Each structure stands twice: as C-alpha cells, then as structure tokens.
Amino acid sequence: MKNICDVVENWWDYYLVKYGLRGKTALILKTKPDQITTNWDRYIFKRIKGKLKVIFRLIKENRIEYDNKSDTMVIYCQDKKIKKKLQLNIEVVENIERILNVCGDFEEYSNDLFIVEIVTGIKFLIRKNIGSDFLALEKGFLKNEYDALYPLLKGSIVLDIGGYICDSSIMFCMRGAKKVYVYEPHPILYKIALMNVKLNKLVDKIDIKNYGVGKEESNSYVKEDKEHAATSSFGLHECPNGKEIMIKIKPLQTIIEEIDKIDVMKMDCEGAEFDAILSCPYAYLKKIKIIIIEYHANPFRLIDYFEKAGFEVQIKKENRNMPTLIGILFASQKEYINLTKQEELKTFNKN
C-alpha cells in the first residue's frame, strides 16, 4: 500500500510480518485521538488483508478514531456527517463503513448481529462480520436484482429456493406477494431468516423450511465457504478449514407437490439449480408460471430443458468476468406470455 507510513507507526514491522520474515508483531495504527495497538501475525494479514486496507484508508481520511481507555472506535461515513461509536472490532470495520454510507445508521442487536433499516419500515438482522448479508440487501432492495418480477408479484404465490436471510422473500411481500414459501438449508441462515420475518411482522405471509433442493431426498455434508461462517456463496465454494454442515435436501418435485399452486419461483441455490431442475418432471415445472434462476455454470442444459417443457427462456445480466459464470435465467410458460401479451415483462426487457 502506498504511503503506509502515514497510517502505521511501525510500518517496517508490517512488511516483516506480511512477507514471513517475522512471526508476529504489535502493529500500531495512527488514529485520533489515540493509537490502536494490536497483535498481528501473518495468518491474520492473509485472512483480513482487505479489511486492513479499509482501516488504512479510513485512517488516512481521518474517518476513524480510537480511544484506548474505553477500547472504543468511532467511524465516520464518507461525508463525515454520520458517525458510529462501537467496541473495537477490526474485522467488522468494512461492514460498518458500507452500512453507514448506504443506510446512514444501524443498531447493535447482539454480540454477533446488527439491525439495519434498508428502506423505510423494512429492517433486517445481519451478521456483523459477514459482508454478503448487507450486500444481499443492497442487491435486492437498492439495485433491484429481481425487478423483472415486480409486475408479477401482486397477489401471487411465490416459491423462494435459497432464502438466505429472507431478504428476497421480504422484498416479494413488500411488492405485493400473497404468500411466500422459503427453503434455506443452512441452519444459522435459517434462524436469522426466521428472526427477520418476525422482525417485519410477516409470519402469516412467509413460511420457511430448513431444507435445500436437489435431485433426491437426502442428507448432504457441505463445508462452509469461510473459516468462521457461511456467506451467500455457501454451497458453491468450500473453504478447506470451513465448518462441515449437514443439510437436508428435498427434490423440487416434492416441494411443488406440497405447495401445489405456485405463480412465481425464484431460485438462487449456488449450483444446485442444475440437479434440482433437470430431475424435476416437465409436468411439475409446468405448474409454475414464471421461473427466475441465478445460474452458476453454462446454462445451456437448463435452457434446453425449459424449452422442451414448453417455456420461453431469456438470459439476462450474465457476468463472464467472475471465476464462475453467473447470470439470470427467466423462464415463462408460453401460454402465460400469450395471455398477458408480454406487458408484464417490459421491466425485465429494459435491463
């Protein structure tokens, strides 16, 4: 990092540890009115180097202060009009800055969770040290990731496969969905999702099941994608040192049978979409009018399968710059499109 001497008192020790020439050091960061002194080793540098860069930048911009008497830090948003005082926790600094810049404020709910109000009247519990929780809220509520569905949600029955912290399901209800059935396999994410539903008083509209989706009913063991937790990419990537989690799997056919009437299905299950869709008989898929899927590999098999089942398929928002090919597949029953004369798809076609 350029001008590291501006933010680190003993900057030479930083490099000695970073490049393995010293096992660990007490790193002294220059903040006002005091200095943060904490012990670092090379493992910590590798694990949270991105967060270190954020801290260094905040120090250079005079947007972070530390009081070693009370062990608290104060972080300012970009225009320095909003600040937040919390216990020192360097691993959550990056998340705090993002939340301050977007939402303006937040509250501590527990040792592990923040409460944020992403839009007026809609609040979420998110984990302090997992950035993907807040990023999911940004994508769904502020960047309108599922705007293609907005005209179709009023009064609809929605199936949400890959519920995460119930961000998309709550957004669907906000947009007029009558009932949302949610499937989230990770036990911790499932618990947070339940809490978010209660927080927004949507227990009567959102039904959450602690299951994943696949080609057959089974139990599967999957390592979390981070050493200390699961992110929104849980299931797509595994961390060698991640905790192994047992998740319960149901076939998509069974889920459709249990719900019976489904207007819209959203699926974001980090690679499991192929087994789930390709093992589901055409007759069951045709019970759903509109399907939107975030795919995580070349979607040609999904496109072929949906077209054979009588759906019209569109590919939107494909990102080829990621290590894994990611995009959005939108499948609609041809009869449904002809009935609506595609008026309800105008929003999607603008993207």
Explain the overall architecture:
Helices cover 31% and strands 30% of the residues. It is of the alpha/beta class and 351 residues long. It has two domains: 4-105, no CATH class; 141-349, Rossmann fold (3-Layer(aba) Sandwich). The strands form five sheets. Strands 11-10-9-15-16-18-17 form a seven-stranded mixed sheet, sandwiched between helices. A three-stranded antiparallel sheet has the order 3-4-5.
Structure summarized in a few sentences:
Helix content is 31%, strand content 30%.
How are the elements arranged and paired?
Layout: H1 11-18, E1 24-30, E2 35-41, H2 42-47, H3 49-60, E3 64-67, E4 72-76, E5 83-87, H4 93-103, E6 107-108, E7 113-119, E8 122-127, H5 131-142, E9 157-161, H6 167-174, E10 179-183, H7 187-199, E11 206-209, E12 212-214, E13 218-223, E14 244-251, H8 252-259, E15 262-267, H9 273-278, H10 282-285, E16 288-295, H11 300-308, E17 311-319, E18 326-333, H12 334-340, H13 346-349
Identify the CATH architecture of the largest domain. 3-Layer(aba) Sandwich
Strand content: 25-35%
Distance between the termini: 37 Å
Percent helix among the residues?
25-40%
Mean pLDDT: 89
CATH fold call of the largest domain: Rossmann fold
Helix count, per DSSP?
13
Number of strands: 18
Low-confidence stretches: none
In spatial order, strands of the major sheet run: 11-10-9-15-16-18-17
Shape by Cα distribution: elongated
Q: What's the CATH first level of the largest domain? A: Alpha Beta
Major sheet summary line: 7 strands, mixed
Going by helix content, strand content and strand pairing, the class is alpha/beta
